[in-house]
UniProtKB/TrEMBL annotation, chains A, B:
Gene designation per UniProt: proA
UniProt entry tagged with the keyword Metal-binding: no
Name of the protein in question: Gamma-glutamyl phosphate reductase
CDD domains: ALDH_F18-19_ProA-GPR (cd07079)
Protein's organism: Thermodesulfitimonas autotrophica
Reactions listed under catalytic activity: L-glutamate 5-semialdehyde + phosphate + NADP(+) = L-glutamyl 5-phosphate + NADPH + H(+)
Highest taxon, organism lineage: Bacteria
InterPro entries: Ald_DH/histidinol_DH, Ald_DH_C, Ald_DH_N, Aldehyde_DH_dom, G-glutamylP_reductase_CS, Glu-5-SA_DH, GPR_dom
Gene Ontology MF term list: glutamate-5-semialdehyde dehydrogenase activity; NADP binding
Amino acid sequence: MNAIEAVVVEKAKRAKEAARRLAYLPTTVKDAGLLAMADALEAQMAEILAANARDLEAGRLKGLSGALMDRLMLNEKRVKEMAQGLRDVVKLPDPVGEVVAMWRRPNGLEVGQMRVPLGVIGMIYEARPNVTVDAAGLCLKAGNAVVLRGGSEAINSNSAITRIIATAAYRAGIPEGAIEFIDRTEREAAQVLMRLNGYIDVLIPRGGAGLIQTVVKTATVPVIETGVGNCHVYVDEFADLSKAEPIIINAKCQRPGVCNAMETLLVHEAVAPAFLPAIAQRLKERGVEIRGCPTTLKFVPWAKPATEDDWHAEFLDLILAVRVVRSLDEALDHIYRYGTKHSEAIVTENYTNARRFLKEVDAAAVYVNASTRFTDGGQFGFGAEIGISTQKLHARGPMGLKELTTVKYIIFGEGQVRE
Amino acid sequence: MNAIEAVVVEKAKRAKEAARRLAYLPTTVKDAGLLAMADALEAQMAEILAANARDLEAGRLKGLSGALMDRLMLNEKRVKEMAQGLRDVVKLPDPVGEVVAMWRRPNGLEVGQMRVPLGVIGMIYEARPNVTVDAAGLCLKAGNAVVLRGGSEAINSNSAITRIIATAAYRAGIPEGAIEFIDRTEREAAQVLMRLNGYIDVLIPRGGAGLIQTVVKTATVPVIETGVGNCHVYVDEFADLSKAEPIIINAKCQRPGVCNAMETLLVHEAVAPAFLPAIAQRLKERGVEIRGCPTTLKFVPWAKPATEDDWHAEFLDLILAVRVVRSLDEALDHIYRYGTKHSEAIVTENYTNARRFLKEVDAAAVYVNASTRFTDGGQFGFGAEIGISTQKLHARGPMGLKELTTVKYIIFGEGQVRE
């Protein structure tokens, strides 16, 4: 075992030991830990901002883009928001111990399913230091230990933050090892973590498509895939166009850089002549570049022609691909072919078309007459979210505290044996 | 792409196409398919037995063990049981389409979770040809396509069976490609399957520890790990020994070769003098070899001394490791250290000890006063099972039809947009 491997294994071991006790720690103790973490972030603000300044300076030297520098940057307001985030988690109900179901078998055995923590969660993520605090808080509330591996750009910020919150949590009665941070930036450290079966129960990568693909391809530990969203809005021939317009503007423009933003608009040919020129104009006013199919170009002559790549693209920007389709079936085929199974919406007043879209589209979230931007733990009412799963195992869509747990069967007998 | 890869990809593609239609196929059509498959197995019995005879002949030449030959062997009775298994699946409720929960948000959006199929399931399994039929039936009922990859010993039997059931299903209205069988026995075929992200949604390996470890280490497709069980029964100082005896005999002897059989018995020192000699005698009468800790050897002088390996062992045989412990804590530590998180039982009349065992033991199934042998889909009331998950993601413990599904969020709006 080399030095990097030794560091990662040692941290994972400590997390695993902590997880055993965390699993049945009373909610009151976990909440006291969260509040202590929040207070410590504010009390040690200067230390965090100093560490962040070192990251920002290194980022400037490396020539990081303005967007990346902004994501990396902490100030008093942002640190206070991180602390408030932890206090908000205190208010959420503890998912651990809930008996999801219990039934009696003919032989008198009572069989139940109880919600329990996953154990040790490995988080591999990119630049934003607030993910460090969010993840640590949510994992702790759900009774999990967490091993954090942030991006190298934020190494000083993340080191300071985790030292501060882990110490505060420990002093408040949380087992040592509950929050571990890997302070080695070598790629090998992440690779070791991804293959630590027996120590890490689940890996949650958060970041760009490249990071997530690397984790999926490298990990032997089970992974919850998050992220990529090539989302569509389909304006049906029976759409109420007065609903379609605000939904489209919202889905594309309210926050274009996130995974639940719309990337392709599909419009039924029956409404295209009336609707496309108008909506294109509204989008143009908001700075949206349109890349259209040949039919779209007839109605929106100033649009660029769309390429095959555009139908596949997650632009994460003020760019929209637009295609005119001849039927609901053609829309469903397009979504099947190009979609990433994240969030898909139909705008229609037709009962049968709405039902077909709901049934036939295979995605984490399928909408009728609402913006795809609602795919979010907060918007769904979960109070918090650790990511949006785009895989089908375990969790699909926004993941809240419940998705950070598993279940175990509990069986009560009075001496039963199997015949 | 070489020839083997081409074969596997082609089959997975067909399965993926079938899965799209299977996802919303009416239950009546799926049930008609299952009944047609059952009828075809019986009608084409001669063809199946002839294919099986070729596998048995090859097995004899290869020198397969008696146990393996028995698992491989089909006869009229076994084929009829396979057909009956399919008819039993018809009687189970269809899990697809169930709305698990639905709630209204303050903005009027209605958010629900609907059960939907996983998509394409890859099954990699060993000798027994009945797994072919079981898996195909359960996957179909839950709306999934399945790509089957059985062991090379059963290649002729599995080829004949899948050809017969897939044809029967297709004639009954099931989409072509719903049941695909990989008839290449090269190791590479399995490896290609394990890495077909984008085609295969979930892999379920069934077989020995070696197979499962290979899949976990090789796969990039999400895996549901099944299987290994180093299960314990702990006889507490407050045990009702008249309950302990039948539970222990049952857990060890009723079917020693399965994953939910007991492998290690833990006995509190306070009851060891009275209990150990008696239970050891009963076990000996049933042919059980005992490997004990030094204290056990005092009470059972004829037992063999246990080695460190014995505490780790999944014997799957009439062998039992026995350890005397000084406390519940010592029992919990032993289980934490050596257990495989499958099935663990305490025998006690003490309320607090029972509660501590239930809370503190991390396993798929935790029992009070009942045999570990109940960890089984049929025994839990699921009607059927596709395996027993020993991982924490998605499914834990016996997996029935419900575990072969995922959920999607369905959202009903009237034009809502995000603020």
